[in-house]
Amino acid sequence: MDLDIARQELEEFIPHVKNLSNSSIKKMAGRDLTRFKAFKKQGIAVKFGRFTQKENKQIQKNVEEFLSLTGIDSAEKLLFTWRYPDDKDTIHRLKTEHHFCEKISEGIPRPWRLIYYRARKMFDPNNYKGRYSNEEKEKLKKYQALHGNNWKKISELMSRSNLSVAMKFSEVKSAINYGPWTKEETQKLMNAVKEVLRRKIKPENANSLLSLEESETELCIEREKLYQALPWTEIETKVGSRYWRQCKQKWNSILTSKLTRGQELYKGINGLRTKINLIKRLYETRAEDASEVNWDELSNAIGDVPRAYVQSKFYKLKVSFVPLWKRKTFSEILDYLYEETLPELEEKL
Questions:
Q1: How far apart are the first and last CA of the chain?
Q2: How many domains does the chain have?
Q3: Partners of 221 in the beta sheet?
Q4: C-alpha separations of 66 from 56, 112, 203 in Å
Q5: Which of 265, 286, 274 has its CA nearest to residue 334?
Q6: In 10 A of CB 152, how many CB atoms?
Q7: What is the model's pLDDT at position 214?
Q8: Most CB within 10 Å of its CB: which of 9, 26, 180, 298?
């Protein structure tokens, strides 16, 4: 297919496709476009974000069926073929002959690449190996000094997943402060975020602005742009004394305070009303999984706050009120909160 036509057809399903490279477009045209069109006929939209339990089960089913079909004896060999150099040629041949790309993505309305990465995370035996020992942390620093940010190489040396070693290095690469944020740290964070936001705003994106003052100190953009898709590892480097997750949490905390003008939304009478509203709005979504919830819309149940704030309040609700919540599905948790917790909270209010 002509590259421009492929890009144009893919744009119907993936709005940001114009930012993708030509090689990515070629791969998506081959692996995804036919699937996307088939899903459209069924009235199913292409999805992004967190995978649902149903999708995870489908991936597991697809992998198990492909192993059964080809005789490959483990998911690790299938998804991490380079770890088995003696079997590499045979596995590659079997994957080609039996259409691995099509089989692994069957029944899942997402780009193939995202499904593949999800499968690798689910089936990587080096994932979920618990806390890093002090010895492992020192090894990680040494390997990074030798190999830079080649996380694939380092993950093999550490017998940990790529994501795990990259995130852990972010924490251990320098002296991290775990105490309360100082005024100096907070100001560094504010300056770092401001610098990043200024760079992201370009003339061609002017339609996304509410206003852009010529002053070097005034910058006004849509609320969502303040906390979505920010480069946290870059911001972490600019702050210096905190790792990226701390920076993200602190920024969301600052936004919550600013957007609500410092109101205590989750204490006293306001806290009860917030819990009640949040339970009702969540129950009305009839969502089967957290990834199906539009958390940005739900922020209105609490106030003009970031989605991370709403998600953290839901987490506190289920931990505080739902017995054995880890064993329940998302919908079962919502049912319990609505049927058991909500009447108690309303009576208390």
A1: 62
A2: 4
A3: 209
A4: 15, 16, 48
A5: 286
A6: 11
A7: 42
A8: 298
Strands (E) in the chain, as ranges, are 209-211, 220-221
Say yes or no: 295 and 230 in one domain: no
| Same domain membership, residue 162 and residue 85 | no
Q: In terms of domains, do 143 and 92 share one?
A: no
- CA-closest candidate to residue 302, choices 249, 256, 348, 347: 256
Residue 212 lies in a domain: no
Q: Output the CA–CA distances (angstroms, integers) from residue 42 to 49, 99, 101, 102, in the order listed.
A: 21, 23, 21, 18
Q: What is the pLDDT of residue 221?
A: 62
d(CA 279, CA 302): 11
Please give the structure tokens belonging to residue 56. Answer: 């995870």
Residues in the chain with pLDDT values less than 50? 203-204, 206-216
- 307: in domain: yes
Write down the pLDDT at residue 105: 92
- List the domain range (segments joined by +) for residue 320: 268-348
